[in-house]
Amino acid sequence: MTAPLTDVGAIVVAAGRSTRMGGVDKTFAPILGLPLIAHTLGRLESSPRISQIVLVLAEDSVERGQELVRRQNYRKVAQVCAGGQRRQDSVRNGLEQLAPCGWVIVHDGARPCFDEAMLQRGLDAAAECGSAVAGVPVKDTIKLVSDEQMVSDTPDRSLLWAAQTPQVFRYGLLLETHRTHAGDVTDDAAMVEAQGHPVKMFLGAYENIKVTTAGDLIIAEAFLKASSTT
Q: pLDDT for 30-39, tens place per residue?
């Protein structure tokens, strides 16, 4: 049976090794009394737009993730599975665990500062062409630099956006793309682009940071604290 296009699933990707965190596993690093990943899952769990969630973790963190899901009573988290060697392998593992749905949202587990309005903007944008990616206009001048660190070009800043997640796709489109695309990509939007499909950019937020270093935890905590008081 074909899934209704209003049915939305989410894949939360948190299978990285936190190599820039000084030995700290960022996925379970505490923020405001909860693990980082709990803030991300909690916002998806509370969204009326999301019907199911698959959490993708490093293999040695799967049991810890399952315990978190039980402890927090996340009813929408249908599966907790292990990721793969590359990010795209982890997303595909999550896709294989997701029940067929109309739309799928792929989101970094280390981006806990998104909100419901951003999810809706993503779904609205994806409805136009089947795929959409959150992003923000870059604030700095960008330089293209050679291997010798010589500036080769200065692209027009007005055309440059920094890509984020959530990224939203028709379920069938993303699944087929993952099954047919073998090259390395940095995100799912790049994979879909490489297959010749249009991708719409929608506004994310400058606060929608990805926790990569220990300092980012402090910033994310400040953003989450501010959002809880508004």
A: 999 999 999 9
DSSP letters spanning the chain: -PPPTT-EEEEEEE----TTTTT--GGG-EETTEEHHHHHHHHHHT-TT--EEEEEE-GGGHHHHHHHHHHHT-SSEEEEEE--SSHHHHHHHHHHHSPP-SEEEEEETT-----HHHHHHHHHHHHHHSEEEEEEE--SPP-EE-TTS-EEE---GGG-EEEEEEEEEEHHHHHHHHHH--S--SSHHHHHHHTT---EEEE--TT-----SHHHHHHHHHHHHHHHT-
Pairing of strands 34-35, 30-31: antiparallel
CATH 3.90.550.10 applies to domain 8-228: yes
Domain spans of the chain, in order of start: 8-228
Cα–Cα distance for residue pair 157/176, rounded to 1 Å = 34
- The model's pLDDT over 164-187, given as tens digits with 9 standing for 90+, comes to 999 999 999 999 999 999 889 999
pLDDT for residue 74 is more than 70 = yes
pLDDT tens profile 111-123: 999 999 999 999 9
